[in-house]
Amino acid sequence: MSAARRRLPDEVRSAAVRAWLSFSCTLVSLMVATLASYARSWLLAPALLATGLGVFGTAWCLLEILISRQIAAQRMRGPNSASPMSGSREPGRRRGPGRTPLQG
To answer: Tens digit of pLDDT for each residue in 21-34?
Structure first.
Protein backbone atom coordinates (compact mmCIF):
# COMPACT_ATOMS: atom_id res chain seq x y z
CA MET A 1 0.00 0.00 0.00
CA SER A 2 1.45 3.35 -0.97
CA ALA A 3 1.96 6.19 1.46
CA ALA A 4 -0.22 8.50 -0.63
CA ARG A 5 -3.28 6.29 -0.15
CA ARG A 6 -3.94 5.91 3.54
CA ARG A 7 -6.38 3.50 5.11
CA LEU A 8 -9.80 4.93 5.86
CA PRO A 9 -10.82 5.26 9.51
CA ASP A 10 -12.99 2.48 10.91
CA GLU A 11 -16.20 4.52 11.13
CA VAL A 12 -15.88 5.59 7.49
CA ARG A 13 -15.28 2.02 6.31
CA SER A 14 -18.24 0.70 8.31
CA ALA A 15 -20.47 3.46 6.89
CA ALA A 16 -19.32 2.55 3.37
CA VAL A 17 -20.14 -1.12 3.98
CA ARG A 18 -23.61 -0.19 5.21
CA ALA A 19 -24.12 1.97 2.12
CA TRP A 20 -23.16 -0.86 -0.25
CA LEU A 21 -25.43 -3.31 1.58
CA SER A 22 -28.33 -0.86 1.43
CA PHE A 23 -27.69 -0.20 -2.26
CA SER A 24 -27.55 -3.91 -3.10
CA CYS A 25 -30.80 -4.61 -1.22
CA THR A 26 -32.41 -1.70 -3.07
CA LEU A 27 -31.34 -3.16 -6.41
CA VAL A 28 -32.72 -6.58 -5.48
CA SER A 29 -36.06 -5.09 -4.45
CA LEU A 30 -36.16 -3.08 -7.68
CA MET A 31 -35.63 -6.26 -9.70
CA VAL A 32 -38.38 -8.01 -7.73
CA ALA A 33 -40.70 -5.05 -8.38
CA THR A 34 -39.91 -5.16 -12.10
CA LEU A 35 -40.55 -8.89 -12.36
CA ALA A 36 -43.72 -8.58 -10.25
CA SER A 37 -45.04 -5.88 -12.57
CA TYR A 38 -44.42 -8.10 -15.60
CA ALA A 39 -46.20 -11.00 -13.91
CA ARG A 40 -49.00 -8.78 -12.57
CA SER A 41 -48.38 -10.20 -9.13
CA TRP A 42 -49.62 -9.01 -5.75
CA LEU A 43 -45.96 -8.67 -4.75
CA LEU A 44 -45.62 -5.39 -6.67
CA ALA A 45 -46.84 -3.08 -3.89
CA PRO A 46 -44.55 -4.45 -1.13
CA ALA A 47 -41.60 -4.53 -3.55
CA LEU A 48 -42.19 -0.89 -4.52
CA LEU A 49 -42.44 0.04 -0.86
CA ALA A 50 -39.17 -1.78 -0.14
CA THR A 51 -37.53 -0.02 -3.10
CA GLY A 52 -38.63 3.40 -1.85
CA LEU A 53 -37.37 2.66 1.65
CA GLY A 54 -34.14 1.34 0.16
CA VAL A 55 -33.57 4.55 -1.80
CA PHE A 56 -34.12 6.55 1.39
CA GLY A 57 -31.79 4.25 3.33
CA THR A 58 -29.07 4.44 0.68
CA ALA A 59 -29.24 8.25 0.67
CA TRP A 60 -29.04 8.21 4.47
CA CYS A 61 -25.97 5.95 4.35
CA LEU A 62 -24.26 8.18 1.77
CA LEU A 63 -24.89 11.17 4.00
CA GLU A 64 -23.42 9.20 6.90
CA ILE A 65 -20.26 8.56 4.86
CA LEU A 66 -19.85 12.28 4.19
CA ILE A 67 -20.37 13.20 7.84
CA SER A 68 -18.02 10.51 9.17
CA ARG A 69 -15.31 11.57 6.69
CA GLN A 70 -15.59 15.14 7.92
CA ILE A 71 -15.42 14.03 11.54
CA ALA A 72 -12.37 11.87 10.83
CA ALA A 73 -10.66 14.76 9.01
CA GLN A 74 -11.33 17.08 11.94
CA ARG A 75 -9.97 14.48 14.32
CA MET A 76 -6.75 14.21 12.31
CA ARG A 77 -6.24 17.95 12.52
CA GLY A 78 -5.72 19.32 15.95
CA PRO A 79 -7.76 22.20 17.28
CA ASN A 80 -6.75 25.52 15.66
CA SER A 81 -4.17 23.94 13.34
CA ALA A 82 -3.67 24.74 9.68
CA SER A 83 -2.16 21.42 8.61
CA PRO A 84 -2.81 17.83 9.70
CA MET A 85 -0.97 16.82 12.85
CA SER A 86 0.79 20.18 13.18
CA GLY A 87 1.72 20.95 16.73
CA SER A 88 1.07 17.44 17.96
CA ARG A 89 4.75 16.55 18.15
CA GLU A 90 7.97 18.40 18.10
CA PRO A 91 10.07 17.55 15.03
CA GLY A 92 13.10 16.21 16.91
CA ARG A 93 11.40 13.80 19.32
CA ARG A 94 11.36 10.75 17.07
CA ARG A 95 14.72 9.38 18.20
CA GLY A 96 14.79 7.15 21.24
CA PRO A 97 17.14 7.72 24.20
CA GLY A 98 19.70 5.06 23.14
CA ARG A 99 20.01 6.05 19.49
CA THR A 100 22.59 8.56 18.42
CA PRO A 101 23.62 9.62 14.93
CA LEU A 102 26.71 8.01 13.47
CA GLN A 103 29.93 9.85 14.14
CA GLY A 104 32.09 10.05 11.05
So the answer is: 999 999 999 999 99
